[in-house]
Hints:
- The protein is mainly α.
- 75% of the residues lie in helices and 6% in strands.
Amino acid sequence: xxxxAGNQDQTNLTVxxxxxxxGFQGSQLLRNLLFFLFLVVFVATICGNLLIIILVSTSxxxxxxxxxxxxxxxxxxxxxxTTIVPNLLHILLNNGGTVSFIGCMTQFYFFDCSEALExxxxxxxxxxxxxxxxxxxxxxxxxxxxxxxxxxxxxxxMGNVISFIGTITLSKLNFCGSNIIDHLFCDFVPLLDLxxxxxxxxxxxxxxxxxxxxxxxxSIIVVSYIxxxxxxxxxxSSTGRQKAFSTCSSHLIVVSIFYGTxxxxxxxxxxxxxxxxxxxxxxxxxxxxxxxxPIIYSxxxxxxxxxxxxxxxxxxxxNKH
Length: 321
């Protein structure tokens, strides 16, 4: 039974005080298998991203703008699954779980903040690759320490401000009917579906927030890669073209996976998706993308491989002595 707050509004409608998250409904065996899978992925995600943060901060050859941005992306990739996965594991073990109204809004805040932050970080990283390939001689004068730190501070501030406004907007909605969320976490769309308020103004406000958090970063990424592709195609030798493009291929793969799943969840019409497919798509960008990102950057990057080898060599040398 829904837990209801004591106060009632003028239309005598009770107000929902907590939500029930269904997660993945199925047999105990299926839920146990999913629990084990998500737990392994979560631990690997934390370890992989922490490794990148430690390597970038301790290895001198990684003290460059590109790796500084990658380390910030790793922080975002730790924040996002930490917001989602622990509660998801609890839901799988108990075949559903309750979350208070405040807890639900808090989860949405951190989820939305990390998503917006990742959008801005990927845009800054695409600009970095644009400068490196299209203006290599001016790279050090453009991508200064001051510029890098300022761009990261702005990204964090924008992520928090956008998330704060979105969360306040959601919290003002009336939830007076069912309190069952057929989803993995407190996301924008399932919460709107439960609301008994007029959501037209909310859609307008969220669209206004979407402009700076999605449209602007996407535009920066697209324009940057148009210039990058144009510059790469002008290189006469195929070896030179391949070398130039390899410097941004990892970033392009990460961008494609992240934005591909984001647009699939929030842009495709509802009739094209079921709740099961929505849950699976949500898992891709909240659980598996943060897991895949450090793998992509480490497997396709000679500098990070070298830093790992040097760190392991130092550790082995210390143990011998």
